[in-house]
Task: inverse folding
C-alpha cells in the first residue's frame, strides 16, 4: 500500500513537470491559436543558456537567470519578427509545421552555441529525499516538491495576469478573434512578443526543473511530445487543465509502468500517455476543461 | 513562347482528361522516363545508387503515401516512421517464411498488411480532427516502435533485435543482400515507383481523390454531396499506409539491408517525410518527388560544401544541417506554402509568355 | 402563379422544435412543400430560417418533431443520407471546396452517381474511365446551363463572389436533386447578377421539375418567384400561404417593421 502511494506520488510529481511544459503551450495557443511544437526545445534552449552563462561566463545564479530571461525575450521578439509576422493568416496546420521548423532551428543553434554534451544544472535547489516523508517509508525528492510548489505559484500568477491585467485581457481578446482584436486597436505583434516571452520564461522554469533533475540534454526537447497528451486531457486552452492533465498523465504512466510493465517487457512509458490521450479523445474530444468547438455552417 | 498551348485543341472530354494534355508536358515526361530507364543505368555507380538514387526513389514512394493522407485528404499524420516499420517487418517475416512467393508479391503483401494496420489507427479520425489526430498517429508511432523492439517474434528472436534481409532473386538476378547488383536494384525500385506513382495519380484525379479533397477542404460540405466521412478518411489511411508500407519494405530490404526499429523508423523519419511533402507541395504527385529529391540531396550537398569545402567538422556540419532544414521549412511555409510543385506551376505559367514578360 | 401544376406533397415538416441549450431556435414549426413548387422561407435575421434548412438537410437534429420526405418519415438523418435521398443545397457563406477547380467542384456533385471501386479507379481504364467521361458530360451540361464555361479550370477560391455562388448552385444541380434548398442565393449580388440567378432558379424549376425551397431577403424576388411563402420570426411560425396573402398579413407587417412585441 505504501508502495502504491509512493508510485502515485512520484507520478504526480512527474506530472507536475509535464504540466510546466504544457503551461507554455497553453499560453501560446490561447493567444495565437498556434500549437508551438518548439516549446520543448525552448525549454532545452533556455536551460542550456542558463548553464552556459553560469559556466562559460562565470555568472552567479541570479544574474544568469536574469540573463537567460533577457535572451528568451529577445528570442520571442525575433520569432515574431522573422516568422510569425509573415504567417498571420495561415491555417493552423501551416503554423504548426512552422513551429516544427523552429524547433529544428533552435535545436541546432543550442547545440552550436553551448555544445551538445550533457550538462549538470545546479542552481541550489534542494536535492535528495524529503526527510519527513522518508521517515514514513515514502521516497519523494525535495526537488519534485519544489517543482510542484513552483508550478502552483506560476499558475496563480498567470491566472491573475490573465484575468486582472490589461494585457491579460488583450491576450484573451486576441485568442478569441484576431481581426476583432485588431479592430479595437490591440497590436497583434506586441501581444505575440509578450506571449512568447512569457512562454519562454515558463520554458525556462520547466528547463530548470527538468535539468536539475536529470541533467540538461537533448531528451528534454522530447518532453514536448509528451506534453501533447497532457494538453489533450486538459484541453488546449486551459491553464488548470494543463496542471490536472499533467498529473493524470504522470500518475497514469507511472502506475502503468510499475504494475503492467513487467508483464510486457517494460518501457510502456514510451507510448502509454498517447494511448491514454487517444482513448480520451474518443470520448471527449475537447479535453476536461477545453472549449467545445461548435461548427457553424 | 515555347510553352504555349495554342493550336492544341481537344475534341473530346477524353482528350481533355488525359494525364498530360499539353504536348510539351508529354515530351518532358517521356524525356524523364527515358533518362530514368535508359540513361541513368549506364552512368550508375554504387555510391550514386546508395547515397542518392535509392533513397530518393524510396522516399518518393513514402512521400506519395503521406501526401495522399495529409495532402489530399487533410489528415495530419506523424506516424509515417511506424508504418514504414510495419512494412519492413512484414516483408522480413514474409521473406523468411515464404521466399518462394517472389520479392515483388511479398512487397505488395506487406503493403496490404500495413494498409490494414493504418486503417485501424485511422479509426479515431472519425471523431478527431487536425492535430488532435496527429496525437493519435503519434500513439501509433511510439506504440509500433516499442512493439517491434520488444516482441521477439518480429525479429525472429535474434540477439540484436535487428532484422537482416535474406538474398532474394528476381528473374534470376539477385536484388537484395550484399551480393545484389546495383543496376538490378535500381530497375526494381524505379519500376515500382513509376508504376505506383501512375496509380496514385489516377486515383487522385478520380472520384475518390475528389472526395478526399472535399473532406480536406470542408468536411461538412462534403457530407452534403454524399461523401461518407468514415469511408473517405479510412480509405485515405488505407491507401496511404499501403504506399508507406511498401516504401518501408523497400527501404529495409533493398536499401539498408538490415535495420533496427528505433534507428531506422523513429519519429524523425515521420518528420522527414512530412517535411518532404510540405516543401514539395501538399496534394501533388510531382510535389512528392520534388520534396524527396530536395531533402535527400540537400544534406549531402551541404555536407560536401561544409566539410569538404570549408573543412568544418562533421558534428558542426550536422548541427548546421538541422538549422538549415528548419529555416527552409519556415521559409517555404512563408513564401510558398504550396511548395515546390506550386513554384513549378508558376514557372510554367511564366514560360508561356517568355521571353515576353508582359 | 396559381395555375401551376403542382404535385403531391414531397416534404412535410411536422412540429419541429430545435434548441441549442436554452436557446430555442425553432418552435413547433409545421409546413409542407409540394413537388415542383418554389417555396420561400422569409423572416428577419435570426428567425431560424437557415436552421430550418439545416434540419431538413440533416445537419441539425431537432429535439422534437419529424420530417417526411418522399413518403419516409424520420426524426433526423445524417447529411449524406439526405443527399442520397435527393436533397441538395447551397449555403449562405458558400461552402465550395476552395482547393479544387470549378469543374472538379461540380464533378463532386456527381459523387453519388459514381460507383466504380478503388481498383478500377487506380488503373483508369474500362468501367472507371467510362464512368468518369459519362459524368463529365453531365457536369458539362450543368456548366452550359449556368454559362460558366470560361472558368471551368479555375480554382474556385480565386473567383469573384457572384461566380462562386453560381458554381455552388452548379454543384447542387449536378446531383440532379428532387429537392433543392437554397440559402440566400442572391445575397451580396448586384441587380444584374440577381436577375441571372432568378432566371436560373426559374429554369431549374421549369426545365428539370426540381422542387425548390428558398431563403431570401429580397421581397421583390420572393413575391415574384414563389408559389407559397413561409414566414418565421424568432423561431416561431408567423404566416404560411400565397405571396399576396402573406404580404397583407398584419403579424408579418409588424415583424418586419419592428413594432415592439413581448418576448414569446
Result:
Amino acid at each position: 500500500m505504501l508502495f502504491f502511494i509512493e508510485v502515485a506520488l512520484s507520478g504526480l510529481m512527474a506530472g507536475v513537470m509535464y504540466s510546466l511544459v504544457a503551461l507554455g503551450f497553453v499560453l501560446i495557443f490561447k493567444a495565437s491559436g498556434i500549437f508551438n511544437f518548439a516549446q520543448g526545445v525552448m525549454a532545452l534552449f533556455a536551460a542550456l543558456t542558463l548553464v552556459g552563462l553560469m559556466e562559460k561566463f562565470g555568472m552567479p545564479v541570479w544574474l544568469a537567470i536574469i540573463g537567460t530571461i533577457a535572451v528568451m525575450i529577445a528570442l520571442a521578439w525575433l520569432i515574431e519578427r522573422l516568422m510569425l509576422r509573415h504567417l498571420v493568416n495561415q491555417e493552423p496546420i501551416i503554423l504548426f509545421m512552422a513551429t516544427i521548423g523552429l524547433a529544428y532551428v533552435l535545436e541546432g543553434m543550442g547545440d552550436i552555441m553551448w555544445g551538445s554534451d550533457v550538462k549538470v544544472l545546479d542552481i541550489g535547489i534542494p536535492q535528495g529525499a524529503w526527510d519527513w516523508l522518508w521517515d514514513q517509508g515514502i521516497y519523494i525528492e525535495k526537488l519534485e516538491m519544489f517543482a510542484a510548489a513552483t508550478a502552483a505559484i506560476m499558475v496563480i500568477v498567470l491566472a491573475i495576469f490573465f484575468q486582472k491585467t490589461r494585457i491579460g485581457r488583450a491576450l484573451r481578446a486576441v485568442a478569441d478573434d484576431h481581426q476583432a482584436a485588431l479592430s479595437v486597436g490591440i497590436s497583434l505583434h506586441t501581444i505575440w512578443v509578450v506571449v512568447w516571452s512569457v512562454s519562454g520564461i515558463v520554458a525556462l522554469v520547466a528547463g530548470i526543473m527538468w535539468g536539475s533533475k536529470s541533467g540538461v540534454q537533448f531528451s528534454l526537447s522530447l518532453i514536448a511530445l509528451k506534453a501533447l497528451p497532457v494538453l489533450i486531457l486538459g484541453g488546449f486552452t486551459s491553464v488548470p487543465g494543463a496542471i490536472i492533465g499533467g498529473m493524470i498523465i504522470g500518475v497514469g504512466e507511472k502506475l502503468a509502468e510499475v504494475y503492467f510493465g513487467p508483464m510486457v517487457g517494460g518501457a510502456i512509458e514510451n507510448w502509454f500517455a498517447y494511448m491514454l490521450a487517444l482513448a480520451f479523445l474518443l470520448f471527449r474530444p475537447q479535453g476536461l476543461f477545453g472549449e467545445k468547438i461548435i461548427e457553424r455552417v | 513562347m515555347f510553352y504555349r498551348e495554342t493550336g492544341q485543341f481537344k475534341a473530346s472530354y477524353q482528350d481533355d482528361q488525359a494525364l498530360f494534355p499539353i504536348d510539351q508536358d508529354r515530351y518532358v515526361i517521356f524525356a524523364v522516363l527515358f533518362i530514368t530507364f535508359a540513361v541513368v543505368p549506364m552512368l550508375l555507380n554504387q555510391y550514386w545508387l546508395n547515397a542518392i538514387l535509392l533513397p530518393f526513389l524510396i522516399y518518393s514512394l513514402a512521400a506519395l503515401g503521406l501526401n495522399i493522407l495529409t495532402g489530399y485528404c487533410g489528415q495530419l499524420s506523424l506516424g509515417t516512421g511506424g508504418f514504414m516499420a510495419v512494412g519492413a517487418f512484414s516483408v522480413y517475416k514474409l521473406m523468411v517464411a515464404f521466399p518462394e512467393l517472389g520479392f515483388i508479391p511479398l512487397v505488395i503483401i506487406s503493403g496490404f498488411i500495413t494498409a490494414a494496420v493504418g486503417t485501424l489507427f485511422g479509426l479515431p479520425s472519425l471523431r478527431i480532427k487536425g492535430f488532435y489526430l496527429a496525437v493519435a498517429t503519434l500513439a501509433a508511432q511510439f506504440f509500433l516502435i516499442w512493439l517491434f523492439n520488444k516482441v521477439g517474434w518480429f525479429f525472429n528472436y535474434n540477439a540484436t533485435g535487428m532484422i537482416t534481409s535474406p538474398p532474394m532473386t528476381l528473374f534470376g538476378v539477385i536484388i537484395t543482400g550484399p551480393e545484389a547488383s546495383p543496376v538490378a536494384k535500381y530497375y526494381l525500385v524505379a519500376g515500382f515507383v513509376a508504376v505506383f506513382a501512375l496509380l496514385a495519380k489516377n486515383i487522385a484525379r478520380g472520384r475518390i481523390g475528389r472526395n478526399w479533397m472535399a473532406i480536406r477542404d470542408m468536411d461538412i460540405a462534403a457530407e452534403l454531396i454524399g461523401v461518407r466521412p468514415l469511408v473517405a478518411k479510412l480509405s485515405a489511411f488505407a491507401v496511404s499506409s499501403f504506399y508507406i508500407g511498401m516504401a518501408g519494405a523497400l527501404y529495409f530490404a533493398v536499401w539498408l539491408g538490415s535495420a533496427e526499429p528505433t534507428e531506422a523508423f523513429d519519429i524523425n523519419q515521420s518528420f522527414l517525410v512530412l517535411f518532404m511533402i510540405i516543401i514539395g507541395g501538399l496534394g501533388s504527385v510531382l510535389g512528392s518527388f520534388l520534396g524527396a529529391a530536395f531533402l535527400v540531396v540537400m544534406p549531402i550537398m551541404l555536407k560536401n560544401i561544409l566539410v569538404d569545402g570549408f573543412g568544418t567538422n562533421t558534428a558542426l556540419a550536422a548541427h548546421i544541417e538541422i538549422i538549415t532544414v528548419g529555416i527552409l521549412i519556415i521559409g517555404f511555409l512563408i513564401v510558398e506554402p504550396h511548395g515546390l510543385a506550386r513554384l513549378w506551376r508558376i514557372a510554367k505559367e511564366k514560360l508561356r509568355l517568355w521571353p515576353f514578360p508582359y | 402563379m396559381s395555375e401551376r401544376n403542382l404535385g403531391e406533397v414531397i416534404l412535410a415538416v411536422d412540429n419541429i422544435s430545435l434548441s441549442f441549450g436554452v436557446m430555442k431556435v425553432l418552435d413547433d414549426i409545421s409546413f409542407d412543400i409540394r413537388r415542383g413548387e418554389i417555396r420561400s422561407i422569409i423572416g428577419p435575421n435570426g428567425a431560424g430560417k437557415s436552421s430550418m434548412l439545416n434540419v431538413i438537410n440533416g445537419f441539425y437534429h431537432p429535439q422534437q418533431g419529424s420530417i417526411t420526405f418522399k413518403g419516409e418519415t424520420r426524426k433526423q438523418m445524417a447529411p449524406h443520407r439526405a443527399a442520397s435521398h435527393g436533397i441538395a443545397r447551397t449555403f449562405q457563406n458558400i461552402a465550395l471546396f476552395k482547393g479544387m477547380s470549378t469543374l472538379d467542384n461540380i464533378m463532386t456533385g456527381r459523387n453519388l452517381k459514381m460507383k466504380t471501386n478503388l481498383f478500377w479507379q487506380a488503373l483508369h481504364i474500362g468501367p472507371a474511365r467510362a464512368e468518369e467521361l459519362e459524368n463529365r458530360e453531365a457536369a458539362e451540361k450543368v456548366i452550359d446551363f449556368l454559362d460558366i464555361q470560361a472558368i471551368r479550370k479555375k480554382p474556385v477560391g480565386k473567383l469573384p463572389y457572384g461566380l462562386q455562388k453560381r458554381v455552388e448552385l452548379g454543384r447542387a444541380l449536378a446531383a440532379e436533386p428532387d429537392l433543392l434548398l437554397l440559402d440566400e442565393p442572391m445575397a451580396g449580388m448586384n441587380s444584374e447578377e440577381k436577375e441571372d440567378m432568378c432566371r436560373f432558379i426559374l429554369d431549374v424549376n421549369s426545365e428539370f421539375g426540381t422542387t425548390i425551397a428558398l431563403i431570401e431577403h429580397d421581397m421583390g424576388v420572393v413575391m415574384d418567384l414563389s408559389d407559397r411563402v413561409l414566414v418565421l420570426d424568432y423561431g416561431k411560425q408567423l404566416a404560411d400561404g400565397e405571396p399576396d396573402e402573406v404580404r397583407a398579413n398584419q403579424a408579418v407587417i409588424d415583424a418586419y417593421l419592428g413594432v415592439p412585441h413581448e418576448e414569446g
In short: The CA atoms of residues 94 and 165 of chain C lie 7 Å apart. Chain C touches chain B through 38 residues (CB under 8 Å). The mean pLDDT of chain C is 87.
